[in-house]
Specification:
Pfam families: F-box-like. It comes from Geodia barretti. Residues 120-160 form the F-box domain. The chain is of the alpha+beta class. It folds into two domains: 2-112, no CATH class; 166-218, no CATH class. It is 55% helix and 13% strand. The chain has a four-stranded antiparallel β-sheet with strand order 1-2-3-4, with helices on both faces. β1 (27-34) and β2 (42-48) form a beta hairpin. The protein is elongated. The termini are far apart.
């Protein structure tokens, strides 16, 4: 009996290790959303270099009102298993739609956008050459690209490209507000923010001509 129990324990540990290995592989694609009505469950499908993960977090009115925390479920398949699991694919299609399922299949089969395989430095360098409309469209592709399209490194680079070298004051403001926010400020908004910071700086007296400080340094 002890031998059987030990064998079962080893199998459980191997399965846990397998799931961790697949879920922890490099992320290629991700979708999140709510299950079709009347369910309110939260679902996530994640495609990695090791496989496909489908997570479900049950959301119930009774659980919310009674303070109960629902136990999430997780199904983890290798890329090969996903390719032949019609039920798994159907659930992804019902939740996220036919087009999303096509994207998941492309990612799982290795036929995916080369952008997702680039390093962050190279990806940001490429994005900095795009126009703003293209960056906005690219940010809608998936979470990974959305995060990169909104990161400070990209928007600082775009600021330097479009506005020139930022002054120390603008750099400090960007640290506080974010480079994307500063990039989209017009001159009046920027001067108001800089004036506010000067007034809030202890022991600093704002000069009458401060509102005409140049925005960039040579």
């Amino acid at each position: 009996m002890a031998a059987i129990s030990s064998k079962a324990s080893d199998e459980i540990m191997q399965e846990v290790s397998r799931k961790k290995r697949i879920a922890g592989s490099k992320k290629l694609f991700e979708l999140t959303g709510q299950a079709p009505s009347p369910s309110k469950d939260y679902l996530q499908v994640l495609v990695t270099e090791g496989g496909v993960v489908l997570r479900r977090v049950p959301i119930t009115v009774r659980g919310v009102t009674q303070g109960a925390v629902p136990a999430p479920s997780e199904k983890v398949l290798t890329l090969e298993e996903f390719a032949v699991d019609a039920d798994f694919q159907a659930e992804v299609g019902r939740t996220f739609g036919t087009e999303a399922l096509k994207q998941v299949k492309r990612a799982a089969s290795g036929r995916w956008d080369v952008f997702l395989r680039l390093g962050e430095d190279l990806l940001i360098a490429i994005m900095s050459l795009l126009d703003l409309q293209s960056i906005a469209r690219l940010s809608c592709v998936n979470q990974h690209l959305r995060e990169t399209c909104n990161c400070d490194r990209l928007w600082e680079l775009l600021y330097r490209t479009h506005q020139g070298h930022p002054s120390e004051e603008i750099g400090s403001l960007a640290t506080e507000r974010g480079w994307k926010t500063v990039f989209f400020m017009n001159k009046l908004q920027l001067q108001k923010e800089l004036s506010r910071r000067r007034r809030e700086k202890p022991g600093d007296v704002e000069s009458p001509a401060s509102d005409f400080t140049f925005l960039t340094e040579s």
